[in-house]
Amino acid sequence: SQERKRKKVGSSDLTFNEIGGQDSAKQELIEALDFMVRHEEIKKFGIRPIKGILLTGPPGTGKTLMAKAAAQYTNAVFVAASGSEFVEMYVGVGASRIRDLFKEARTRAAKEKKDNAVIFIDEIDVIGGKREGGQQREYDQTLNQLLTEMDGIFTSETPRILLIAATNRKEMLDSALLRPGRFDRHIQVDLPDKKGRRHILELHAKNKPLSSEVSLDKVAEESYGFSGAQLESVMNEAAIYAMRDGSGEISQRHLSMAIDKVMMGEKTDRQSTE
Ligand code: ATP
Fold this sequence. Notes:
Distance between the termini: 32 Å
Bound molecules: adenosine-5'-triphosphate
Mean pLDDT: 88
Order of helices and strands: HEHHEHEHEHHEHEHHHH
Structural class: alpha/beta
Number of strands: 6
Shape: elongated
Largest sheet: 6 strands, mixed
Number of helices: 12
Strand content: 5-15%
Low-confidence stretches: 1-7
Strand order of the largest sheet: 1-3-4-5-2-6
């Protein structure tokens, strides 16, 4: 658990340059961050501050990377959790974990003398799902605690807490989370287009021996519909093929085989859950 914690907490050094494609999502996020750090002016103009940013879109498109880059960009400490971590058998445990998460962000920012703290909650839909007729009482408490913490974020106070959440299922979210003053900035992080796929492939090819005959354009074309996470797998699998057959570098054929493998892997995954 200590090990897991260490991975999830820290000052992020990932920059927006290491995220492929997603040009408009990156731009929207940077605009929101630039706005948020101008708290003096925001106050002067009586503008309602942004407290939460919601990243929506399919799995593996780089939402976590975006949150990390946001922390780097605002020179903030980065504290992350996943919605599923708050689901517990005992009533109140989820709520107290939410409290701890915010406390941890404040303590760490103070310790590291940082003015900002980014709290990232992945799979927010797990705790922030629609509250319907008496069910899911435990979740209710957790969600209520999150709403309370959000209402308690004063942007003029340090550390300034910047809450970023991610979901693949925005339509499932309770409307209380989406109200003004809560997660009222939504940024769509979609599957990359061909240019985006090429960019992502380039980033993941950086530390790999690529044969000069390789056309990443062609790989981008053949990997239509792939997410960033799948493209990362393609590069990795291709490198494994190249290493295995002793060819010394990654060829176009290795990449085509890797695309097939990743595609097949997805298919078998899907079949086994059906
Ligand atoms: P999930 O919804 O499953 O949590 P996510 O959208 O948060 O997914 P990430 O965790 O950010 O996705 O991405 C997983 C991995 O896939 C990254 O660590 C990275 O290796 C790769 N990846 C995904 N998107 C991109 C991208 N746009 N640029 C570069 N790498 C990417």
